[in-house]
Specification:
By secondary structure, this protein is mainly α. It is 67% helix and 0% strand.
Length: 225
C-alpha cells in the first residue's frame, strides 16, 4: 500500500536515516568543504543529525508498561530536532539546519500526519527560514540552490494531486539538478564568496547537504511502497 501520509513514528525513522546518511557522507562533505573552506562540514552534519536523531528517539519511549505516551504532534518533533541541532552544532550550517527544521516544524504544528501538501508547506517554510537566517537567496550558490527547486517541485506535486512517492521523486531530481546548476554560479555567501571567481565550476557543499536531505525523504517513502 502506498505511503500517502507520514506519521510521527515515520519522522523518528527518517531522522535516524538522516543520521546514517550524514555519517556515511561525512568524508565526502569534508573533502568538498576543504577545497575552499575549513573542511568541517561533514563533522558538523554528522554531529547535528546524530544528536537530533537521539532527541527524536527519546520522544518514543518503551510502551510496555502502558504508561508512557508518544509525541503525536509532528511539528513539535521537528522543532525539537531543530533545537537539538542548533545547540549541538552552533556553526553556520548547524544553525541553518536547526533554523530550517524549527521553521518547518512550526508550519506543520499540531498535525499528527503529513500529506504531500503538508510536506510542501514544511519544505517551503524550511527554505524561507534558511533564506532569512542566512541572508541568502536562490542564485547565491548555497544550500538554497538545491532546496528551493525541491520545495517548488513538492508544491507542484501537491497542486497536481500526486502521491508522496511521486512528489519526493521529483523533489530529489530537482535537488540533484540544483547541485549541478549551482556549479556555474559565483558564490555570494559563505567562505566560497571570499574567492568568487575561483568558486565558479566548484560544487557547493551546502547544495549537496540539501540534496542528501531531500533524497533521504524520497528513499524512505519509496521503501514504504
Amino acid at each position: 500500500m502506498a505511503c500517502e501520509k507520514l506519521l510521527p513514528r515515520d519522522i523518528k525513522l527518517l531522522m535516524n536515516n538522516l543520521k546514517e546518511v550524514m555519517l556515511s557522507n561525512k568524508e565526502k562533505l569534508i573533502e568538498l568543504d576543504g577545497i575552499m573552506g575549513d573542511g568541517d562540514l561533514g563533522l558538523t552534519m554528522a554531529k547535528a543529525f546524530s544528536v537530533a536523531s537521539d532527541e527524536v528517539s527519546a520522544l518514543f519511549p518503551d510502551l510496555k508498561d502502558g504508561t508512557a505516551t508518544e509525541e503525536a504532534d509532528i511539528g513539535k518533533i521537528f522543532i525539537k530536532a531543530g533545537m537539538a541541532m542548533a545547540k549541538a552544532a552552533p556553526s553556520t550550517m548547524g544553525t541553518l539546519m536547526g533554523t530550517g527544521f524549527m521553521r518547518g516544524g512550526k508550519a506543520v504544528r499540531e498535525k499528527a500526519e503529513l500529506s504531500i501538501h503538508d510536506m510542501a508547506v514544511f519544505w517551503r517554510a524550511f527554505v524561507e527560514g534558511l533564506e532569512e537566517r542566512g541572508k541568502s537567496k536562490p542564485g547565491d550558490k548555497t544550500i538554497i540552490d538545491s532546496l528551493d527547486p525541491a520545495a517548488s517541485a513538492l508544491e507542484s506535486a501537491a497542486s497536481a494531486g500526486r502521491s508522496l512517492k511521486e512528489g519526493f521523486a521529483g523533489a530529489a531530481a530537482a535537488a540533484e539538478a540544483g547541485v549541478e546548476n549551482a556549479r556555474t554560479m559565483t558564490a555570494q555567501c559563505g567562505r566560497l564568496a571570499y574567492n568568487q571567481e575561483k568558486s565558479k565550476t566548484l560544487i557547493d557543499p551546502g547544495t549537496v547537504v540539501g540534496f542528501l536531505l531531500i533524497k533521504s525523504f524520497a528513499d524512505y517513502i519509496s521503501a514504504e511502497n
